[in-house]
Amino acid sequence: DVFWQFSEAVAGMSEACRALGIPVIGGNVSFYNETGTSAILPTPVVGMVGIMDDLSHVCRQGFIAPGDGIVLLGDCTEELGGSVYVHLMTGRTAGHVPILDLERERLVQMVCLDGIAHGIIRSAHDVSEGGLAVTLAESCIAGDTGAAVSLPGGGRLDALLFGEAPSRIVVSV
């Protein structure tokens, strides 16, 4: 089971790197992570490098200035499978993991990078572990500021706040 999970994870990362044009320079995986009497899931680690042509395009995750607008790039879904929230609520890692659409991911990344390059986007933070609520909190903490946000109505509030669907970035503009 563990080797199959690792094999599938590496195949998925490889497909994503090809689709997004990301060069990988190295990596490692630990199959035998143990703590006390329980195993930790296999942990693939990927090493990458890049060149920053213009240092003014460096974008941090913290909100920068009071009055900036906060925008979510990408769509919220009602998927909670495999999320930290489900694990905290049930004690299990369960549910169908959200599917990554590589073309959608590429488009969200391009919009974000273009907005940064044109000086429109002042901060950017991916929505990942913990979902939108955690991303907003981390951006506030990193920027040493608060934020007021409006959430869309309808749907499950827990999924909106804690779902970990891919291809989403919180930006300030």
Describe this structure as you would to a colleague:
This protein has helices spanning 2-20, 84-90, 102-117, 131-143, 157-162; strands at residues 26-30, 34-35, 38-39, 43-47, 70-73, 123-126, 169-172. Strand 2 and strand 3 (38-39) form a beta hairpin. The termini are far apart. By secondary structure, the protein is of the alpha+beta class. Helices cover 35% and strands 15% of the residues. The protein is built from 5 helices and 7 strands, in the order αβββββααβααβ.
Largest sheet: 3 strands, antiparallel
Task: Tell me the series of helices and strands, N- to C-terminal.
Answer: HEEEEEHHEHHE
What is the SS-derived class? alpha+beta
The fraction of residues in strands falls at 15-25%
- The percentage helix is 25-40%
Q: Would you identify the regions where 5 or more consecutive residues have pLDDT less than 50?
A: none
The average pLDDT value, as a whole number, equals: 89
Number of helices: 5
Specify the overall morphology: globular
| Rg of Cα set | 18 Å
Distance between the ends: 45 Å
Number of strands: 7
What strand order characterises the main sheet? 5-7-6
Q: Can you summarize this structure?
A:
It contains 5 helices and 7 strands, in the order H-E-E-E-E-E-H-H-E-H-H-E. It is of the alpha+beta class.
